[in-house]
Amino acid sequence: MIDIQDRKFVDIQNDLQKMLYSDESDKSTSDIALNNILSERSVQILNRYVELSSKGVKIAYEELAELSNSIQMLNENISSLKDKIDLDIFFKDGYTLDIEAVKRKFKNKRLATKFPDFNFARLDELYRNPPETLKTFYSDDVIILNPFIFRKYLIGILQMVLDHMDLVVALTGSEGSGKSTHVSQLMYMVYWLLHELGITKYDFAIKNMFFNSLETLRLTEDKFFSEPYRILALDEGNELHRQNWREEEVATFFQRLRRERFNQRIKFICIPVLGELMPQIVQSRVNFIHEMVNTSDVRTGSLNKGKVNFYVIPRGNEIYSPKQKRNLSKANIKTALHENLKDKNYLKGFDPEILVHTYTCNGTWGFPEKLYIQELKESNKTFKVTKGFKLQDWEAWCLYKTNIKPKMLGLAHTDVLYSSLTKSLSRLRKYFEENEHLYNTMTVIHERKNGEIELKKSIAEQKQEEKQQAKEALEKQKEEKKSQPTATDKAKERLDKMVDGFINK
Amino acid sequence: MLTQETRLKWKNDISFYQKFHEFKRSVYETTSNYKIKDFRIAFNTMVTYLFAYRIFINDYAFNRACSFLSLGISLCVHDDFISVIQKYPDYNNEDLANINKLETLMQESISEAISSSNASLSSYGILPKEELKLEFDTTLI
User: Fold this and answer.
1) What is this model's ipTM?
2) Do B140 and A13 touch (CB under 8 A)?
3) Residue A39's closest chain B neighbor by CA?
4) Phi, psi at A2, each rounded to 5°
5) Distance of CA A397 to CAs A242, A281, A392, A404, A420, Å?
6) Cβ pairs bridging A and B (under 8 Å)
7) Residue of A123, A112, A37, A42 lying closest to A75 (CA atoms)
8) B95: buried, middle or exposed (CB in 10 Å: 19+, 13-18, 0-12)?
9) Mean pLDDT value across chain A
10) A361-419: per-residue pLDDT in tens?
């Protein structure tokens, strides 16, 4: 209780000063006073436990049971408290990553050899303060970034490094809603992040990243097969329509999506309607979905482009939606997506219940728009007209076995045909030499076919010989017959004899 | 007997807690910054607050706050201190230094009392905090 103390003035002063300044540890906010966070009963339990364990006295079974119950309760209380305090400390400075813990995990997984230049300080800085804009590499234009989206991609990349995951992003939206523009922005953002964090190094070349057809995408993927963290974007992925699942390219694409997490690609798929993709692929492999939306501008009678609805298919149990200000559970999202994707329900549009965030993007391209128009629209044209032709394995083998080289055909290095011929021939060689099984089967087939021809030859020779022999035998017979007296001769003789006898008589 | 578990049955009474947090804020505002002539007001506010919410405050924290307050009030009403104050306005430099020092001590005693009671009140488990707005995203991807 509060009482006025009648003591020496100096003594009171000293007491107060002692209390104020003696235990500095009490004042720091990071220390949590046990008395403040535990209820009285919990403290009693703790005391009782300490008392019992220190004395080592025998206790009755009932007491033991009570003790175990109360300690269980205590444990639950304390662990829930710890979770809360962890979060409080974690979010004291807003969004933070525990960089020390990241470093520890990095060290435990022995990733230092794989990523010698990984920049932890930059990771912390970027996560805490995401840049608002990003300057493009080709001009002074800037790409406007949304901090929420930026952080999600940053976490995605971090999980790629620490947990060996990959990233698959789908962009949907009607024609002209800005899918290509936005995908170029996202690509550049991811590229920039990969280089800022010192994860990998390569050029931002559009022809190695952005494709119009599955075939070119596959070829480039083959080309950079051993390089992880490659960004690959498929524009107009209408080839991936569910109906085409039987086609070889589509099957390969999905096969790679399913199996080749090892190579850690970052794949962007632009597709007009998400439901065109196979539902199981969407549900199991896609991480982010950006849905581009056009709104109408009544005053000018035109369209406002650049509104994006952002959906996440979470890897954890929940995802926080700033739009709806609540956590969405993974199960709910998957159920809603399944409802949306099955049959032809995808024509209806997404369930607004699973919307995570909405944001706007600007119209700056991540790479020069000129290049996009030049290279990709042209390839689009050729893509429509000429389809090329495919070789069967046996036909390709024949070409491979001839071991033909452009030099043999009299082509010089400077010739236009030379480089492309060399390329395709080397691809052909790779195709057989890297696939041992195929090589062996083709060798067997080759030997069998060779054997068949020889067999035919030998059979034909045998037949020829037989024929010859038969001929010879026939001629011999004829000659023999010639040397032997014929029936008519005999008859003549007999007749002569008879005539002679008759005359003699 | 009022244990802290029975006290927690109030947990769902949101309007009570809203008013309570408003009151707590006003107490904090009055006691955080005052001159020595307003010591009476600050002290009264603090004592009212401490005893009004006695049942929610942990015993340890309550005793600690009480001892701070009693030392503070003992200083304020002590003969020695009043004899110095009486000299007004003829203070020499030594007196001014003494008064400043005491003023700091008294202010600190009250702020220490409020901090220890608040630590008990609004920390984890004893009383719910002000309704937590989900400002931070605790999920990943």
Assistant:
1) 0.77
2) no
3) B4
4) -90, 125
5) 32, 34, 8, 12, 19
6) 119
7) A42
8) middle
9) 83
10) 988 998 888 888 877 666 655 444 446 777 888 888 888 888 888 888 888 888 888 88
